[in-house]
Amino acid sequence: MNSIRLILGACLGLGLLSCGNGGTYSCDHVTGGSHSCSDTVCTSGDTSSIGSSCGLSGGTQLSECTHDGAVGGCKLNTKSGDRVCTITQWTYSGTVASVMSTCTPAGGTFVTP
Questions:
Q1: Which residues are CB-contacts of 30 (< 8 A; sequence separation ≥ 6)?
Q2: What gap in Å lies between CA 113 and CA 99, rounded to an integer?
Q3: 7-27, pLDDT tens digit by residue?
Q4: Are 96 and 74 within 8 A, CB to CB?
Q5: What is the domain count for the chain?
Q6: Which residues, in sequence order, are CB contacts of 49 under 8 Å at separation 6+?
Q7: Model confidence over 58-68: pLDDT tens digits?
Q8: What range does the domain containing 88 cover?
Q9: Structure pTM?
């Protein structure tokens, strides 16, 4: 689960850096055999770099994360200055309980696929 925390932290940081002026962004990650995908929706700020941060973090940019095979997601609302984003981090391995135990302490809300 540490890799999920690391990915979630990276996605939060990337979301804050790359969202704004309204925009959507999805990034698929496979790290150490663990698969996750983040859907980010932003409502303000500069979106000019919205696609580049995914590749920089070793991910693959998608139009939307698939929910097929997802155990669950962790939905977080973030704000930094004028940047407001909602990030849903989908996890494809483990159990519902393990995803919830990572999501809740991070301040997120567990969501079903």
A1: none
A2: 12
A3: 444 444 444 444 335 688 899
A4: no
A5: 1
A6: 17, 18
A7: 899 888 999 99
A8: 2-111
A9: 0.76
